[in-house]
Amino acid sequence: VGCDRSKNLVDICGEKHFQAFVCDALSVPIRSGSCDACISIAVIHHFSTPERRLATLRELARLLRPGGTALIYVWAMEQEYKNQKSKYLKEKNGCKNKDKEMNTGTTQRPLSELGPDNSSQDSAWSDQLLKDLKDESCGAKPVADFRLPVHTNRTSFHSQDLLVPWHLKGGTKKKEGSVDTVLVPGGSKESQELSPVFHRYYHVFCEGELEAVCRSLDCVRVQKSYYDQGNWCVVLEKL
């Protein structure tokens, strides 16, 4: 049985005759102790506070029967480990971005080579958002600069908390003005069209961080922890 926050992804599972439902990882509508095994891949790094990340792990452990196991993957801060670059970094100059595409009814992909250092559009987007919030304060205490760095795709991470730009494949008509748009550089006609840009939050984990959070739960023990192609991974056993 699978679950996901995205209804469109769950619908795709249904079309393939898999059992799946929509829910939040912080509150999974399954009986406690009813699962032999659970898998959480690339989920927990999207939660924005230590408390929410811990709560997600506790909810995962709740689902397991005694002796049951869980496999957890999160994105690693260390994309170069033991002198080896991850697949994510190695594909910087290639055309294999398909591994990061997302399908939510319309295919999405990372906004390649755009970041705070070389994207005036991203900078303008963040500046405007900050200005809007300050305007809404009506002369009250100025809003703190809360902006997160925007990651440049296929490069090493310089911050644990960041935004990764994604854009819809293909263009959007200008009248659909409810989303931010950028002009994507490139030679093809498709890439020259205006595309909506979305910024996804990530907390990338440092070595030992995921394992330490798991060890703070008294209902599980860490069976194994390891590094796999730019991800930190843990196998838990329910006590």
TrEMBL record:
Compositional bias per record (Basic and acidic residues), positions renumbered to this chain: 92-102
A Pfam family hit: Methyltransf_11
Methyltransferase type domain residues: 1-72
Region Disordered: start-end pairs: 92-123
Transmembrane segments: none
Any one Gene Ontology molecular-function term assigned to this protein's record: tRNA (5-carboxymethyluridine(34)-5-O)-methyltransferase activity
Entry keyword RNA-binding: no
Gene3D superfamilies: Vaccinia Virus protein VP39
GO cellular component terms, semicolon-separated: cytoplasm; nucleus
GO BP, one annotated term: tRNA wobble uridine modification
Alphabetically ordered keywords of this record: Methyltransferase, Transferase
InterPro entries: AlkB_tRNA_MeTrf/Diox (IPR051422), Methyltransf_11 (IPR013216), SAM-dependent_MTases_sf (IPR029063)
PANTHER family cross-referenced by the UniProt entry: ALKYLATED DNA REPAIR PROTEIN ALKB HOMOLOG 8
Name of the protein described by the UniProt record: ALKB8 protein
Lineage: Eukaryota, Metazoa, Chordata, Craniata, Vertebrata
